[in-house]
Amino acid sequence: METENDNGTPGISSVIPGWFSEISPMWPGEAHSLKVEKILFQGKSDYQDVMVFQSATYGKVLVLDGVIQLTERDECAYQEMITHLPLSSIPNPKKVLVIGGGDGGVLREVGRHSSVEQIDICEIDKMVVDVSKQFFPEVAIGYEDPRVTLHIGDGVAFLKAVPKGTYDAVIVDSSDPIGPAQELFEKPFFQSVANALRPGGVVCTQAESIWLHMHIIEDIVANCRQIFKGSVNYAWTTVPTYPSGVIGFMLCSTEGPSVDFKNPVSSIDTNTDYNKARGPLKFYNPEIHTAAFCLPAFAKKVIDAK
Ligand code: SAM
Prior knowledge:
By secondary structure, the chain is an alpha/beta fold. The chain has ten helices and twelve strands. It has helices at residues 75-87, 105-110, 126-135, 137-140, 155-160, 187-196, 214-227, 273-278, 286-291, 297-303, and strands at 19-22, 32-44, 49-55, 60-64, 67-71, 95-100, 118-123, 148-152, 167-173, 197-206, 231-238, 246-253. The strands form two sheets. Strands 8-7-6-9-10-12-11 form a seven-stranded mixed sheet, with helices on both faces. A five-stranded antiparallel sheet has the order 1-2-3-4-5, covered by helices on one side. The structure holds S-adenosylmethionine. One of its GO terms (molecular function) is spermidine synthase activity. Its EC number is 2.5.1.16. It catalyses: S-adenosyl 3-(methylsulfanyl)propylamine + putrescine = S-methyl-5'-thioadenosine + spermidine + H(+).
């Protein structure tokens, strides 16, 4: 459901003129707001409203259906953690699939792992790709990697066609379970992810906020426990412009070589030409990797419950 104000622009609040307020039934009774300096793009694709605005304090901002997807200032936290938590947990990942992630930021981070030979991405909305290339070149730089193949389509259908055991890692960088991403949070999709992974392969999915969505997280954990026979883990990090200021990740592995997600086994060579051209990591490091799995008591009780 979209929230529109009187001039029909999703999320642009008329409560405080000149501010964007992220009003959504996914976080009732609260709304994070950013001061808007200028609206740079507004469009409607076959799947969602797409907007870009220049904010006063977070750089440019990408909004889909009235929900902030990324800002120039804090995208590093999300893109680096959703990528390096899984890829640094296995030795020498070679074949990686990204579902969603049309802005290209996860591609940029996957490419930092020099062992990776093949990066496939399935993004449903070409408008997101085009808008990111136009307004977020430091994020969309991920597409300039010759290892990347872009598929425009539904990730659910894409995974159904993937031969068994194809990938070392799958990263599900999806929007929220309202709109085109809804099926990416459901059991059949997780089953198709498990099928696409090799034994001991890993998946990392965007898994909402422990402050707002414990009911969604509880269901995801239960589904993952039934499907992924390696290990099932929940990690979280801070992203100031996401609702409640945090975002979580489900990290699971298929049966096979054991994966200890909490202790990274591979490091990123920051001295490669690729990584020097993309600048240093701004958020991820081995210590914050391990710390990401430390949960507050209220979340641990739900997530660790057998
Ligand atoms: N990477 C962003 C960030 O830094 O926060 C967040 C999310 S990214 C923009 C989410 C993407 O998932 C969107 O581009 C959206 O179009 C895509 N998406 C949603 N449902 C999808 C589906 N069923 N298949 C493929 N892509 C989907």
